[in-house]
């Protein structure tokens, strides 16, 4: 991990003008509850510092944590909204979201559990698990040299989690039209789609999520024609047609531990790993946005922060609870 040595207080100071105007105190649309950047100022003023220190320590121990926590936030908010339903364990008679096929590979739940345990000691029954995920997602981006923004807080935790609903998560095989429709259902626009896809600048994918692009096309080399030919050859070496290495795969950009705009630069060169990523450059509705983010890192940072605030308000519920333990309802 790069540059994980900044303190929590320093991280608050590095919020630049590109995200300063996100100091919104009220809710944006598509939420039933009113959120505030200062929600815990009186009831648990140390909440963000506790979460930051927990996430920072975990990230130093395991460099995969940042990408995993950012993905966790996306996968939680895209199903029932940002209600921490992804954290609930399956029970007798109910298979929960975390055991749905798209979420089997979601990891690092222990980091959220650790932060929640510390919060319960400091401020019992006060900070929701949903807020912990939202704050942790912001922190891992900032720790990885990305933007910092004020997280609106005051979410409640949901009591329902259904594995069969995870079919609604965006797929690495989706085309742009499908993605646009999926995001629109959550009140997110085309620019949000492209900006939030930039979260792939952190992370790694196993072969199963993209190997079909390498072997299943009726082209001379059997690869998706939108893939750079040299890049396709390198991917085939890592993911042969009869691959037996379940850990094999590819980083989603060439600076996978640093939050930057390399993801977009690679897409413009035909080096997007997922079909859904490369499709953004093949569609006129999204191509110019990809180009603009590839050329201007600060623009990407600004739009990503704005879109993360919008995503964090999707489906926020008013009648939930504050779980004492994130994996079970009270």
Q: Helix and strand layout, with pairings?
A:
Elements: H1 8-13, H2 17-20, H3 47-61, H4 65-80, H5 109-122, H6 129-143, H7 176-184, H8 190-197, E1 204-206, H9 212-215, H10 229-238, E2 249-251, H11 262-268, H12 275-282, H13 284-295, H14 297-311
Antiparallel strand pairs: 1-2
How would you describe the overall organization of this protein?
This protein is mostly helical and 330 residues long. The protein folds into 2 domains: 8-168, Peroxidase, domain 1 (Orthogonal Bundle), CATH 1.10.520; 176-307, Peroxidase, domain 2 (Orthogonal Bundle), CATH 1.10.420.10. Helix content is 43%, strand content 2%. It is built from 14 helices and 2 strands. It has helices spanning 8-13, 17-20, 47-61, 65-80, 109-122, 129-143, 176-184, 190-197, 212-215, 229-238, 262-268, 275-282, 284-295, 297-311; strands at 204-206, 249-251. Strands 1-2 form a two-stranded antiparallel ribbon. The longest helix is centred in the N-terminal third of the chain and has 16 residues, at 65-80. The model is unreliable at 1-30 (pLDDT under 50). Disulfide bonds join 44-123, 77-82, 129-326, 207-239. Ca(2+) 2 binds at residues 201, 255, 260. It comes from Lactuca sativa. One of its GO terms (cellular component) is plant-type cell wall. Its cofactor is Ca(2+); heme b.
The CATH architecture designation of the largest domain is: Orthogonal Bundle
Biggest sheet, spatial arrangement of strands: 1-2
The parts where pLDDT drops under 50 for at least 5 residues are 1-30
Structural class: mainly alpha
CATH class of the largest domain: Mainly Alpha
Q: What is the general shape?
A: globular
* Spatial extent as radius of gyration: 19 Å
The CATH topology of the largest domain turns out to be Peroxidase, domain 1
How would you sum up the major sheet?
2 strands, antiparallel
> Which band does the percent of strand residues land in?
under 5%
Give the N-to-C terminal Cα separation: 36 Å
Secondary-structure element series: HHHHHHHHEHHEHHHH
Q: How many domains make up the 3D coordinates?
A: 2
Number of helices: 14
Catalytic activity: 2 a phenolic donor + H2O2 = 2 a phenolic radical donor + 2 H2O
Subcellular location: Secreted
Binding site for Ca(2+) 1: 76, 81, 83, 85, 97
Disulfide bonds: 44-123, 77-82, 129-326, 207-239
